[in-house]
Design goal:
The protein is an alpha/beta fold and 479 residues long. The protein is 43% helix and 11% strand. It is globular and about 60 Å long. The termini are far apart.
């Protein structure tokens, strides 16, 4: 008992020292952060009419906050439940809707939306406009919060998101959602974290089947502690995501995330309070200066590792590898969305990721928005009444969760050849909708699950900010 107490005290001291170092890393770059913070305040000031509607809707709409964390773990570090980041906002649990046959339905398709925030200022409220647009059309929107840097590094964030997804799959039907129709959506840093979770769940699935083939019954060291399989997610929509952290390092640096801050976020000591912390400490010290640290948390490299591990699995001739014959059958359906004028995460990130998926024969759809910035999909465009992004999410949810198979892919995919053409033409902002390895399989018809069409004339979708203020705010936008 004394040894265990000593170990816990040691881990607590190490974690506190690490957190202090993370805070010091931020303080060393305070002038840069202050400049960007002032730009952010200016951005919010010019968009005050929209944010007034935003705040009113957040507190007055059909929204409930639910704790998704482990209740027995509360208070380990003096943290109280009301101060925890392990909450999620659930929109639409009390809103009834009728399908396109006019029939009122009890179970709704579910969208889990992961907000961005550069891994530092993410908060569940940032997804309010997306929920506002989707709930009237029969979608249950869930936006989980997760801890940010410097409280934890990327491992703590990934653990939080993974735990929230497990909670949704276990409990969403208590709130009117359908656990068999869940779509994961992420924007910016949230899309990155979601991509890491999906890839690591695929790696865990492969590892599990490798152990089964070896006849091993011992509990192996999984990447994630959750028990759901990646196939339980109907799809994953990644928006404005930094897929390759290695190539993004210089871009991050130009936007105020210095090399030391990047290492603290992606290569430091985990903020998770578990027995794996010492292993994380040893690993971080050994590899903090290597590219391996960034590759470990890079969706691009994790997907490549999925391919490598899967080849090992099938090369062993494992008879227990279930009915999965191809790597694409392990992944949920995928869609990559990006703006061509995104300066925070260049559009090349999406193109290279799409090329990788194409080479690995993993089905994916894609949508490129000509002239859109990093925050246009979630802020400026919806504020102007342009809900193209919300409509695209809605159409994908219909396609991936409805059984009728009546939703066309034409809004998202043209042909694989457009990837190479887009690489050479995208600088002129003549982008088109492109897609790769179209998976157009249709399921049996069942009108019971049909959603009503997305109506862009709905009163909730009207503009909420004058165009002149939005255009001025764009100049101040720090993202």
């Amino acid at each position: 008992m004394t040894s265990k107490t000593h170990r816990h005290t040691l881990l607590t001291k190490q974690e506190n020292n690490t957190r202090q170092k993370r805070i010091w890393d931020l303080l060393r770059h305070l002038p840069t952060f202050m400049f960007r913070f002032l730009r952010l305040l200016s951005f919010v000031f010019f968009l005050l009419p929209a944010f007034a509607v935003f705040l009113y809707h957040y507190f007055a709409c059909d929204r409930i906050a639910v704790y998704y964390g482990v209740k027995d773990a509360i208070g380990e570090n003096g943290e109280r439940m009301f101060l925890s980041r392990h909450y999620l906002d659930m929109y639409g649990s009390r809103t009834t809707y009728a399908n396109d046959n006019g029939e009122t339905k009890k179970k709704k398709p579910v969208v889990i939306f992961l907000t961005g925030g550069a891994w530092i200022i993410g908060y569940r409220m940032w997804g309010c406009l997306l929920a506002r647009a989707l709930v009237p059309f029969g979608i249950l929107v869930i936006i989980p919060d997760y801890r940010n840097f410097p409280k934890v590094n990327i491992k703590g964030m990934v653990d939080d998101v993974d735990m929230s997804i497990q909670w949704v799959l276990d409990h969403v039907e208590e709130y009117g959602g359908d656990r068999n129709r869940v779509v994961l959506v992420g924007q910016s840093a949230g899309a990155h974290i979601g991509g890491v979770v999906v890839a690591k769940k695929v790696l865990d699935w492969i590892q599990q089947h490798q152990k089964a083939g070896e006849g091993s019954t011992e509990e192996d060291c999984r990447h994630l502690k959750s028990t759901y399989s990646p196939q339980q997610l109907c799809g994953f929509i990644t928006t404005s995501s930094p897929h390759n952290l290695v190539t993004m390092r210089s871009v991050f640096h130009r936007h105020g995330l210095s090399a030391s801050v990047q290492r603290s976020i992606f290569g430091g000591i985990s903020g998770s309070n578990d027995d794996d912390l010492i292993d994380d400490i040893v690993k971080s010290v050994a590899t903090s200066d290597d590219m391996d640290v960034f590759e470990e948390w890079s969706p691009y490299h994790l997907v490549k590792k999925c391919q490598t591990d899967y080849i090992c699995l099938i090369s062993e001739g494992n008879a227990n590898r279930s009915s999965i014959d191809q790597l694409k059958d392990i992944f949920p359906k995928l869609c990559v969305i990006h703006g061509t004028s995104d300066k925070t995460v260049p559009v090349e990130e999406a193109i290279e990721f799409l090329s990788l998926l194409s080479n690995l024969q993993i089905p994916a759809l894609s949508k490129m928005y000509p002239g859109w910035s990093h925050t246009d999909p979630i802020l400026e465009k919806p504020m102007l009444g342009n809900h193209l992004y919300h409509r695209d999410i809605y159409e994908l949810v219909r396609r991936w969760t409805d059984s009728s198979g009546t939703v066309s892919d034409d809004r998202f995919a043209i042909c694989n050849d457009n990837i190479e053409r887009y690489k050479s033409e995208h600088k002129s902002e003549s982008a088109e909708n492109i897609g790769i390895v179209d998976d157009s399989s249709k399921e049996e018809e069942d009108d019971d699950f049909n959603l009503i069409p997305f109506d862009e004339t709905h009163c909730i979708l009207r503009p909420i900010c004058p165009r002149s203020l939005v255009e001025i705010a764009r100049v101040c936008n720090p993202f």
